[in-house]
């Protein structure tokens, strides 16, 4: 009897240690998601490399985070500005290379780094929720300092930037149109998929615990800000969803679901052979043509 009790205590102790270890791991994982120090990287491209005049611009968010970006004015006067937003672990230079051609179509362009990434301040990246404060600050900056250039505003976002573009357009009627490329469908789904693709972390029991601590650290449930809840509110303004047919992080099926939830007018292009964030690279000339046609028509 004593030996059975002894074994039972050992099993219970091991189970307790395993539970504690799991909780500690999940707490650490949640902090790594929200504080991606290793994801901040230096810029490797600037507008003047493509023959574009530009201004370095700075502006602060409502929670006092300073953001840095570029304002690239159209060669001839234009009252139309496109705000372009990068993905998680990226910076504004990463999307400049594939989108600067929009300047030649007569649009002003505003690029900026999200908080905790590129050259912007801040240490916390929320993969969407806090970044909504960043795009709101960008819109406010344009209206306060360059009102004559932003009578019409369009949004372009890649990956996390796509989520931010969708949510900002849903709440801000001043946004005329949206291009969301490789946007995720649900915060819960993208976190679980990223954990599995990069680290083979199974959904149960780890992901629900990690999501719990992300919620706790942010003080808000980021799932509420998922594009699937917001994209229906963009209509009747147009939205264009671009997605890689072979996206390994956000499966193309989720882009189809997002498209289904969007109201008219709407477009979707599933780029054959493209993985996550590779639509421009794979799409080539057709990518530029479709992007140009959308903004020409709707902005």
Automatic annotation (TrEMBL):
Q: Which domain of life is it from?
A: Bacteria
Family annotation (Pfam families): Peptidase_S9
Provide the alphabetized UniProt keywords. Hydrolase, Membrane, Transmembrane, Transmembrane helix
- InterPro entries named among the record's database cross-references: AB_hydrolase_fold (IPR029058), Pept_S9_AS (IPR002471), Peptidase_S9_cat (IPR001375)
Keyword Transmembrane helix listed? The answer is: yes
Q: Name one GO molecular function term.
A: serine-type endopeptidase activity
Membrane-spanning residues: 6-30
Q: Does the keyword Aminoacyl-tRNA synthetase apply?
A: no
Query: What biological process terms from GO does the record include?
Result: proteolysis
Per UniProt, residues of the Peptidase S9 prolyl oligopeptidase catalytic domain are: 98-299
By what name is this protein known? Answer: Peptidase S9 prolyl oligopeptidase catalytic domain-containing protein
Question: Whose protein is this, by species?
Answer: Candidatus Avelusimicrobium gallicola
């Amino acid at each position: 009897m004593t030996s059975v009790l002894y074994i039972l205590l050992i099993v219970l102790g091991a189970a307790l240690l395993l539970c504690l270890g799991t909780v500690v791991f999940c707490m650490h994982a949640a902090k790594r998601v929200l504080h991606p120090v290793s994801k901040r990287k230096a810029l490797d491209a600037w507008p003047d490399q493509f023959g574009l005049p530009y201004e370095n611009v700075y502006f602060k968010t409502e929670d006092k985070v300073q953001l840095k970006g570029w304002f690239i004015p159209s060669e001839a006067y234009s009252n139309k500005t496109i705000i372009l937003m990068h993905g998680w672990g990226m910076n504004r230079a990463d999307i400049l290379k594939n989108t600067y051609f929009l300047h030649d179509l007569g649009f002003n362009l505003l690029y900026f780094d999200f908080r905790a990434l590129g050259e912007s301040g801040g240490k916390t990246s929320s993969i969407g929720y806090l970044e909504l404060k960043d795009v709101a600050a960008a819109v406010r900056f344009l209206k306060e300092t360059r009102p004559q250039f932003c009578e019409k505003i369009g949004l372009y976002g890649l990956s996390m930037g796509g989520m931010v573009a969708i949510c900002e357009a849903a709440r801000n009627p001043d946004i005329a149109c949206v291009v969301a490329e490789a946007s995720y469908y649900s915060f819960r789904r993208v976190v679980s998929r990223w954990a599995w693709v990069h680290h083979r972390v199974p959904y149960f029991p780890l992901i629900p615990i990690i999501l719990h601590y992300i919620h706790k650290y942010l003080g808000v449930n980021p799932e509420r800000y998922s594009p699937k809840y917001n994209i229906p509110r963009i209509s009747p303004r147009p939205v264009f969803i671009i997605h890689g047919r072979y996206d390994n992080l956000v499966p193309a099926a989720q882009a189809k679901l997002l498209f289904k939830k969007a109201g008219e007018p709407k477009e979707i292009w599933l780029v054959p052979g493209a993985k996550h964030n590779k639509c421009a690279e794979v799409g080539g000339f057709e990518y530029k043509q479709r992007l140009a046609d959308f903004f020409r028509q709707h902005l």
